[in-house]
Amino acid sequence: MADLDTFRAETRTWLEANCPASMRTPMVEEEVVWGGRKQEWVNPDSKVWLDRMAEKGWTAPTWPKAYGGGGLSKAEAIVLDQEMKRINARAPLASFGLWMLGPVLLEYANEEQKKRFLPDIVAGKTRWCQGYSEPGAGSDLASLQTKCEDKGDHWLINGSKIWTSYANYADWIFCLVRTDTTKKHEGISFVLFDMTSPGVETRPILLISGSSPFCETFFTDVKVPKDQMVGTPGKGWDIAKRLLQYERQNISATGFGADRSSGPSLGDIAKRYVGLNKYGVLADGDLRGRIAKQMMYEQAFALTIRRNTELAKAGADVGPATSIIKYAAAKMNQTKTELQVEAMGHQGLGWAGDGFRPGELMATRAMLRAKGNSIEGGTSEVNLNVVAKRVLGLRDHQ
Ligand SMILES: Cc1cc2nc3c(=O)[nH]c(=O)nc-3n(C[C@H](O)[C@H](O)[C@H](O)COP(=O)(O)OP(=O)(O)OC[C@H]3O[C@@H](n4cnc5c(N)ncnc54)[C@H](O)[C@@H]3O)c2cc1C
Questions:
Q1: d(CA 333, CA 35)
Q2: Which of 7, 77, 259, 333 lies at a C-alpha separation of 20 to 30 Å from 326?
Q3: What is the pLDDT of residues 138-190, one digit of tens each?
Q4: Nearest Cα residue to atom 37 of ligand 1
Q5: Which ligand 1 atom lies nearest to the CA of residue 137?
Q6: 2-37, pLDDT tens digit by residue?
Q7: Which domains does the chain have, with CATH numbers?
Q8: CA 127, CA 42: separation in Å to the nearest integer?
Q9: Does residue 378 have its Cβ closer than 6 Å to ligand 1?
Q10: Which residue puts its alpha carbon closest to atom 30 of ligand 1?
Q11: 244 and 377 in contact (C-beta within 8 Å)?
């Protein structure tokens, strides 16, 4: 305990000395640092902050020092988190490498692969994308067809992926491929390759929200070195499933980025646009009731996340339970963004122009973007199936 107190004191001093003032303010979407070769530094302090944190391995506090991590115990990592929150320090790096790939590499990769890939994830030098979904393989992911042939000294990859988030900005891809066409799950392998490899092409897909966060990704005779397959050929499905658990866990823990939002609360927005009645409460009784319900849901959600985190720290297997949280997080964010637009009335329906404030334009886009929350990282229906089978132990109805 004394050790932990010492660690807290040292951490507090270090953070005070090293976290730039502008990194202690709420972050807007454009300022999120994803790292990689194409990173543009909107705020130069972001780079200073990332480099300092990465040097200590604190972008990945519990990963072993041998791979660039902080080597902290779980208790120390909690202290670091608490001390960062105390000064409102921003997360220095957002990264599929940190959230999804790194944890499975630690579990499944060989020593050489860990040493090669993990330090660059910690330092934010490599930005990764996720090549899972295909036009004919989404919920039934194991139907994937992207072909990976053994050509002796290399793998040869042909096929296509879809909905690959930020593939056009990514440096490398972790990709599910088929090495054996005679078996379904046992024919899948997990490979890593550079997005600048000849034969890789990305085409961004434009969304209803006006943004383009993902791509169609094509592979034509892409040569991949033999040592870039993780695990043995045909054993990629176990890695794929594990990674999905980390993905859902992470989506859920951040409530789809809701914890990064710096704007006014839903209640404050409603008060401003709808006004108060003579009793000093929101004038629209029906909306008031629904906003109160949403606030209770959010509070219950936050407590559930806390309980789950504690259980995970105590060593419980909370893997399948991440599906409950992912399902609830999607519903929560969709309802929240819909209520926000509703509370704004006509002003919440703006798309462009001087008649609307930036917050109003963002509300419309956020509401449309949230529609994807019940699809990305596994649809709500599929997550309910996981809950039914793996959490509640119910059997399939044929
Ligand atoms: C914002 C966003 C980002 C994404 N990013 C990535 C990414 O980076 N990489 C990547 O690989 N993929 C990504 N995806 C793709 C995502 O994983 C798939 O869209 C998702 O798995 C669903 O697959 P699908 O679109 O093929 O739909 P389908 O599987 O065709 O499903 C269609 C409908 O049928 C329902 N359904 C299907 N099977 C069942 C069942 N057994 N029981 C009940 N209902 C069922 C589904 O719930 C859904 O409503 C992203 C998607 C979104 C929206």
A1: 26
A2: 77
A3: 999 999 999 999 999 999 999 999 999 999 999 999 999 999 999 999 999 99
A4: 139
A5: 26
A6: 799 999 999 999 999 999 999 998 887 788 999 999
A7: 2-94 (1.10.540), 128-235 (2.40.110.10), 254-391 (1.20.140.10)
A8: 17
A9: yes
A10: 138
A11: yes
